[in-house]
Amino acid sequence: MNDQTDDATHAAESAPRVAVVGGGPAGLMAAETLVAAGLAVELFDAMPSVGRKFLLAGKGGLNLTHGEPLPAFRARYGARAEGVGRWLEALSPQSLRDWAAGLGIETFVGSSGRVFPADLKAAPLLRAWLHRLRGAGVAFHMRHRWQGWDPDGALRFATPAGTLLRRPVATLLALGGASWPRLGSDGAWQAVLAGAGAELAPLRPSNCGFDVGLPGRAPGWSAFLRERHGGAPIKPVVLSFAPRDGGPAFRRQGEFVLTAGGIEGSLVYAASSALRDEIAAHGEATVELDLLPDRDPAFVAAEAARPRGSRSLATHLKSRLGIEGAKAALLHEVIGREAAHDPARVAQALKALPLRLVAPRPVQEAISSAGGVRLESLDERLMLKSRPGVFCAGEMLDWEAPTGGYLLNACFASGRVAGLGAVDWLREAGSTGSSAPPRRNAHQLRRGAGHPRS
To answer: How far is CA 401 from CA 206, 241, 308, 370, 404, in A?
Structure first.
């Protein structure tokens, strides 16, 4: 193995050098923050190119952030609302839109409140951003997989040319969680950081689908439902869930999709953290589905009870209540043949169909992951208390949020906070050089005062 070191190559550099490991939104935002402070920045990523998960997120329209009021926005982060709320002081939803505008990317607020680029695409934003970062002097090193530290504290990377060692004055890790590992975030860093004294929460699926388990049957759907209606949307529908341990109840209208063995989609993702925790605690979670959210129970009961003569139940429900296709198949799947001949039980099920969920889908299939580096093991600058000079940002931290722009905004904001934190720490250590901005107090650090918006 060829060990490459950087001591001679960069001996003439006048600016202190910082390493950013990870080329997602958090890492790129940290790199931008650091280079704007006059630091030499090298960004390393294991993949052939940066921003791969970011680009995937934009395939159906890049949901950059959300336009709801900031107090409601903060509340989306649940138990971590206070901690993530401090990040948002450094890069609020409006500040993120202003930042995008500085790259030539105008945004708009959709009817749902979600914020998108005007052309809905992620690639133009990423191209403009990388162009600006390269112009500012950020050096990119692709196919460099971080393997931890060697005995004397140098960063160790596996590269196509062999092992590379780097000895930066500070390191910022933005290594992602464990969802979509083929795009680069595989959670392999956990053992390294545990060995460095970081407190970790297990990585778990977030914004994920679930497997169903109907009573008296093996998990999953029948062959009929799976083959005839797998991939079909269920809409409109209201999903309700009340944790048995007394946590906040969930009730929301939206839509989801029938999968080969369960359910997934935006409505399910919104409830996924509570459902996942319920299954972990009790082995199952039961949701109720209102398949006719625009009809009151009395109307549904009266229509279901109307004499149907020689018509089949399927024809009757279609003509009287508009229940057909995947919704009708789901109803029959859950209540069974006997109950389907009882109009009162059919009407009750149409308004409150119980669906038992037995397992979240694996974290590798999830949109995002929960768990990671506990915020309690970091200071307010997002520096590891156990390893000074090492900062963490993005999805590798222990927080989660629903889809809707909340994930991306917090990733961007955490990168900004960690970058500002590294600048602040280096100044305290006397390592920033003369071009760094003046020292910030804790409140300014959170707000990003003294740092250019873009």
So the answer is: 8, 18, 47, 9, 9
